[in-house]
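Quick note —
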Amino acid sequence: MKVYAWLSAAAFAAIAVFAVLFGSLNQDEGWYLYAAQLVGEGKTLYRDFFFTQGPVMPVVYSFFSWMWRAWGIIGGRALSAVFGALSILFAAALAWRIAREGAKAAAAVTVSLVLGSNLYHVYFLSIPKTYSISALALAAGLYLLTFSRERRGTAFAFASGASLALAACTRTSLALVPAAALAFLVLDRRNRGSAALAFALGCAFAGVAAYLPYFVDAKAREGLVAAQLYHAARGGFSPLLVAGSVSRLVRWYLPMWVLFGLAVAIPACRADFRRDWLPLLLVSFASCAILQLCAPFPYDDYQVPVMPLVAVCAAVAVSSLRPPAVLLALGMTWASSFGSPLVEDFFTAGHDRFWVVRKDASDVSLLKDAASRIEALDPGGKTLLTQDLYLAIETRRHVPEGLEMGPFSYWGDAENAPGLDDAGLKRVIEESPCRVAALSGYSFAITAPSCMETPLEKQLAFWEAVRDRYELKCKMPRFGQHSTSLMILARKGPEGAKGAEKWR
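Predicted structure written out below.
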């Protein structure tokens, strides 16, 4: 198994480097890194700027903000990839803990192959969103929980509760996992009586530590409540979107589902699903997956942090097969990643009739090119007018106050909204000190929290305000997420930006 373990590690390293350097840009990664940067600068979440997720990710990432100050978006991706690698290691360790004697190594290696050789899984663990750190806290918490029956089980149960609570404080939908784990401890006769109490105390300790600073601050508490209302206000449910999400999830994790199907089909493997920790993992996955599928936009990547739970169940159930199922996992995952649609997405921008539209360079390279053009227009500048926050990260600049959520900063004419209203967004355009503006197809196009398209007349009013104050210097087609056009503009007048006339 050592050979397969090394092959798994090498495959993850290669795929992670590929995803970090060539993976498509995602609007959210700039927004998350910018929030963490502000926290590192002493700003308070929910009070000094609006943020819709739990506090753990920006607080933890704030200690590493030097990485993207030094290397731009690649630095943030590298940090996420490290957390993602640790999450896979803990998932493999969890499989080792609960697999049968003699099959532990096979189970652990199978998990590491199914997850670490999956391009889709590694890509979403490598971009700076909440997935890698929540997957790490989830896998670590469940791994620690397996020690709860031992002599010092209460200490492990406390640590497990704290870790699972931190996962929930990163992504609220994961709160169902510590709830399921607590019920499991209460019902499990083989656990020490104090384990459930210690677990509950660990959950409470981590939850209070994560949220108390924002509850005692009245303005931060108001912003935190608004963050929850943001999700509730999106509303809506579409069975068609759910079906599409599930279909894509099957495609992205096909090798894992094949192993899971084998485990269900073979009686000797199927028996494992009724023993020990596997029911807890399956219930935790199912509850979180169903909850996330009920979202107005049930993106399949929402499930990335909980997919290791299914991978562990499948790997443990088939680990005692002869020949080892790890051989099947190796072949399927490598073939699946090589043939993944993501490979095409990384290098193409769709089709023009029957012609494939190739990207001129990788998204990250185009981002760096845009950053160099902005710097040439405004050498040493500190601010940038943009709703594409990965440009603010790459150029080491701040955006005007109120634009911290990127395209989700504009709330239209909603009353008591935490974001910018019509007048507020227009005022930012007209009065911001930014000498350069970088505006893509996302600019002024989305109205939060419904994420509906902004009415055309309002978009035109914002663009007219831009035209009155800025002049176009260059245009980059097929830029950023989903390849929209990026316009880089300089402020008019003697105080405007200079240079870069070759890009006009």
